[in-house]
Design brief:
With 117 residues, the protein is an all-alpha fold. It is elongated, with a radius of gyration of 21 Å. The protein folds into 2 domains: 66 residues, Winged helix-like DNA-binding domain superfamily/Winged helix DNA-binding domain (Arc Repressor Mutant, subunit A, Orthogonal Bundle); 44 residues. Helix content is 79%, strand content 0%.
Length: 117
């Protein structure tokens, strides 16, 4: 997982534990792709201040993931959902009643919605 994607995920899962200012800096840098200089200018702080905040926040967010493991659990859950969907798609429907096929398709569609969310 690349650093930007991982940090975006960490922000999604744990961003609320940061202060509003810390969250704003991290969001601008990792989700809006602002440079350190752009963030510094936007928030009227030094570039070094932005750098220090990002470094500190990354450590906080990574520590939370190490302790709680929510992103890892989320990834494992998504893999399980995909396996279940594959099992359902592989069921031989040739000898099934139409109503059972219809129910199976509804279940498959609901699992697809879960995977995509």
């Amino acid at each position: 997982m690349d650093d930007v994607y991982k940090m975006s995920m960490l922000l999604d899962f744990y961003g609320q534990i940061l202060t509003e200012r810390q969250y704003e800096i991290m969001d601008l840098h990792f989700n809006s792709d602002y440079s350190l200089g752009e963030i510094a200018q936007h928030l009227n702080i030094s570039r070094q201040g932005v750098y220090d905040n990002i470094k500190r926040c990354k450590a906080i967010l990574k520590d939370m993931e190490d302790k709680l493991g929510l992103i890892n659990k989320f990834a494992v859950q998504k893999d399980k959902e995909k396996k279940i969907l594959k099992y359902l798609e592989d069921i031989d429907k040739s000898n099934m009643k139409e109503e059972d096929i219809s129910i199976l398709k509804m279940v498959e569609e609901e699992i697809r919605k879960i995977i995509e969310s």
